[in-house]
Amino acid sequence: MGPYLPQSFYAETPGYVEYMNIALWLVLLAVVLFSMYSLHKSLAAITEELRGINEAATELRRQTVEVEKILEEV
Description:
The protein is rod-shaped, with a radius of gyration of 32 Å. It has two helices and no strands. 86% of the residues lie in helices and 0% in strands.
């Protein structure tokens, strides 16, 4: 306790435990935000891959219809 500040100031000042509590919450928040960002990137990559697969499947269906028409003619 310093000579220039009143006792009530020191009573209201957060202590070591409060600072550790705040720091741990901030670390937890950072971990959650990083995890959500990584999940978002992964889901975006999976979605892009599925779009490519869907386009390939559509092309194969179109080619199958064309082959079936050719076989009917023969």
